[in-house]
């Protein structure tokens, strides 16, 4: 499992740090004692987790508001900071939005990847680079077993396809310029290990994005409305947001010490936590009633929308066998923690403290109490 002591006083550059996953990652790195610089657009939702949890005013987090499509600005930020570790999460992440603006999606998700890798090429201090993509990069044949890392990449919609392209860009740069190059005379920075991580659907407190089922549940509850579910029979691998984030940190750490561990990794829950949207919403409603004493209902509505896969699952045996990673919270625990966060937000509690508590709870699951 990840050793958070490894990150103490390490310089970590994070793109997309003002987003949902990025905000949680910043809190983990802050707890670990890392020196963090984030490069991202301003928060894209209202409200937003970055501001709610105080990161916008946190002296431990250096923030640059910028666009990954701007190569020169991104290079300048990376080179000035001289990070040892770079985690690339900046993206246009919404499938429906990718249909509405495919050009922006490709510019951000593909050229953004090119640009951050170009910045890393210019910064020899970087020893570890991780590109975060998605489980949707695979050519989805709707089969009932998990996709492995050697399966064909061919995302269907512009978002998924742009992430497939982002993977291919990373593969090319890795082979051409970094560790893993076929022709070692071409390696410009022998000390930089490159990996990608393909994570499944995440849930957790503070996700306010449009067109995602748990944020839709939260918005309906806070408005006192019935939850609307579009595709109740779609099956997805659901995991708490802390699961992939700790996996990312594990990959970034391990490949510093052993460059041969740099690879392409699926990150997802156990098979039992690959459930339908219907089952997920039922869990959320039951947990909400248990924690608050208030009942909540949902209804299915057939709403016209873009293509969505009915079934998607990952085979995560590689990261388990090679890096010793295991998921810690099952989907019931993930929903419990999401409802706990939402209830605290509704009651206007200190959200940074709530997030720190949940991170520590997550670490304690593996009896790593030395980080408390």
Automatic annotation (TrEMBL):
Enzyme nomenclature, EC number: 4.2.1.45
InterPro entries: CDP_4_6_deHydtase, NAD(P)-bd_dom, NAD(P)-bd_dom_sf
Domain NAD(P)-binding positions: 13-338
Pfam families associated with the record: GDP_Man_Dehyd
UniProt GO MF annotations: CDP-glucose 4,6-dehydratase activity
Xref: CDD domains: CDP_GD_SDR_e (cd05252)
Sequence intervals crossing the membrane: none
SUPFAM superfamilies: NAD(P)-binding Rossmann-fold domains
Keywords, comma-separated and alphabetical: Lyase
Domain of life: Bacteria
PANTHER family hit by this protein: DTDP-D-GLUCOSE 4,6-DEHYDRATASE-RELATED (PTHR43000)
Protein name from the UniProt record: CDP-glucose 4,6-dehydratase
Organism: Eubacterium callanderi
């Amino acid at each position: 499992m990840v050793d958070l002591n490894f990150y103490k006083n390490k310089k970590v550059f994070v793109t997309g740090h003002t987003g949902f996953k990025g905000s949680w990652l910043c809190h983990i790195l802050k707890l670990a004692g890392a020196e963090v610089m984030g490069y991202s657009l301003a928060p894209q939702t209202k409200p937003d987790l970055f501001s709610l949890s105080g990161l916008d005013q946190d002296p431990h987090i250096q923030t640059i508001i910028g666009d990954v499509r701007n190569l020169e600005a991104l290079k300048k930020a990376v080179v000035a900071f001289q990070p040892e570790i770079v985690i690339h999460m900046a993206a246009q992440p919404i499938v429906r939005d990718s249909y509405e603006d495919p050009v922006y999606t490709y510019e951000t998700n593909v050229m953004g990847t090119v640009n951050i890798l170009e910045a890393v090429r210019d910064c020899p201090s970087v020893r570890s680079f991780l590109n975060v993509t998605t489980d949707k990069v695979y050519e989805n044949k709707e089969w009932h077993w998990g996709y492995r890392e050697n399966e064909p990449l061919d995302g269907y919609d512009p978002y998924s396809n742009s992430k497939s392209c982002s993977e291919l860009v990373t593969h090319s740069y890795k082979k051409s310029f970094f560790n893993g190059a076929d022709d070692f005379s071409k390696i410009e920075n022998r000390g930089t290990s490159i990996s990608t991580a393909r994570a499944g659907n995440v849930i957790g407190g503070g996700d306010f994005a449009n067109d995602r089922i748990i944020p839709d549940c939260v918005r309906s509850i806070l408005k006192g409305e019935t939850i609307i579910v579009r595709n109740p029979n779609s099956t997805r691998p659901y995991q708490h947001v802390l699961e992939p984030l700790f996996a990312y940190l594990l990959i970034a750490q391990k490949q510093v010490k052993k460059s041969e561990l740099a690879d392409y990794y699926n990150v997802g829950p156990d098979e039992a936590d690959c459930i339908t949207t219907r089952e997920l919403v039922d869990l959320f409603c039951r947990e909400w009633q248990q924690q608050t004493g208030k009942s909540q209902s949902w209804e299915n509505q057939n709403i016209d929308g873009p293509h969505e896969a009915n079934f998607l699952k990952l085979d995560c045996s590689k990261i388990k066998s090679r890096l010793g990673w295991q998921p810690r919270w099952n989907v019931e625990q993930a929903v419990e923690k999401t409802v706990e966060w939402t209830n605290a937000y509704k009651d206007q509690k200190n959200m940074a403290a709530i997030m720190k508590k949940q991170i520590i709870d997550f670490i304690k699951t593996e009896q790593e109490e030395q980080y408390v």
